[in-house]
Design a protein that fits this description.
Blueprint (H helix, E strand, L loop, with lengths): L1 E9 L6 E10 L6 E7 L10 H13 L7 E5 L12 H9 L3 E5 L10 E3 L8 E6 L3 H10 L8 H10 L5
Parallel strand pairs: 1-4, 4-5
Antiparallel strand pairs: 1-2, 2-3, 5-7, 6-7
Helix pairs in contact: 1-2
């Protein structure tokens, strides 16, 4: 079993940011811990440099939490087969842990992403990875708990980031 975390960040219209982390173990990833961090100030969104906004929030969500061996992010690790870095690549470089990227929509240049169908869904998730193979990452995502397209841990971290604790 590998102690793993899934992170997500939301930026309310009123300002600031809410970063959420759920922790569980792969394979399977039943949520064992939940953590939320509020940031009063966040960097502005800059196209092509989204990671500058997300990394401080992800670090805030991980602060004071026992280390994870792998992190799952909402989005792509790399944006094309040539390795153009996406959020996950920056997280992998900054934190030094393997990262799985799970994207809900296809990115035109990300032809290397592994499509993963879960449950009875006909629309795939798109999986990329750093620090482990894309095939291994796709198997982890396919095997995560939950009966729907989106694994339950990722649904939960999204709800926490949006302030929907219940």
């Amino acid at each position: 079993m590998m102690r793993s975390g899934a992170v997500d960040v939301d930026y309310p219209a009123a300002g600031g940011g809410r970063a959420a982390l759920v922790v569980g173990a792969l394979p399977g990833f039943a949520v064992a811990e939940e953590h939320v961090a509020w940031l009063d100030e966040v960097e502005p969104y800059v196209p092509g440099q989204f990671y500058l906004r997300e990394l401080p929030a992800i670090r805030a969500a991980l602060a004071g939490v026992a280390p994870v061996e792998l992190l799952i992010v909402d989005g792509y690790v790399d944006l094309d087969p040539g390795g153009r870095p996406g959020l996950g690549a920056h997280v992998h470089e900054a934190l030094g842990v393997p990262v799985i990227g799970v994207a809900k929509t296809a990115f035109r240049a990300a032809t290397h992403a592994v499509p993963v169908l879960r449950g009875v869904a006909t629309k795939p998730l798109f999986v990329t990875a750093a620090g482990l193979s894309r095939a291994e990452a796709a198997e982890y995502v396919r095997g995560m708990g939950g009966a729907y397209r989106m694994p339950e841990a990722l649904r939960r971290v999204d709800a926490l980031a949006r302030g929907r604790e219940h």
